[in-house]
Input
Amino acid sequence: MDYRFQYKLTAQALAAKNLGDAAAGAERSALCDAAVRAGLRFDAPLFREVGPAEQRLGQLLGSMQQAGVAEVEGGAAVQAAGGAPQQQLAFWLVTSAAIAAWESKLDLPSVADLARQKLRELCAVRERLEGEGALLPASGVDSLSPLLRWPLPAAGMDEAALAAEARAAIAAWQVEDADERTAALRKLGCLREQCQRHAYQAYQPLMTKLAAVYDVMLYGAPQRLECEEIHAPPREGYESRLMQLSAEADKVLDESQVDRTLYF
Output
């Protein structure tokens, strides 16, 4: 479930309760709860495969380092990917996440050389995976890979850079069938939400890519998490001075009409 949708539902539930409409607030809270539970159930099978896939990828990279090679045999990569489509999907996801994570470190002088080395190894694994004709179609992500083969901009959360890379990838995708594009869009959204359930530092870079392509395909540009008014009642007092300062700062920001972009 898109976290922005969950955020909006939660805000609407709080706003309804604060405005005295307890029934509407309870209805939206129940809807949000049901959506979250459904999302957890939907994500669970792939979630369970990610940990083992990380271990298999680590073992494969370790064997490459022991052998002193930057290339990997096709059979070894396919074996590491697993025999079931869900295992293969998880392995591809983990590999793609690792590539994006190391891309995000290329501008750090202290680890730039290591990042380039890791990227050579990981990209070699990805090439083997995507070179095996039946592997990606079986996992259901064969149409997605071309959309994610672009380097993460050094600017990180720079919307213009993200949008430009995503648009270029979509333009080169050359898929015109409406049903296929819709299916790819749904897969992108599901994978993005799956990435949210795992280690932030390891999966956030890939999530950034997935979100950029998803938003550009659906809306034409990356979308922000917009603030929602919840009509919070005035507080009589604060036990925490920090919370008081935060509330006072919110009032100043509201009055100054400053752009208050929210990111997860």
Q: What stands out?
A: The chain has a mean pLDDT of 87.
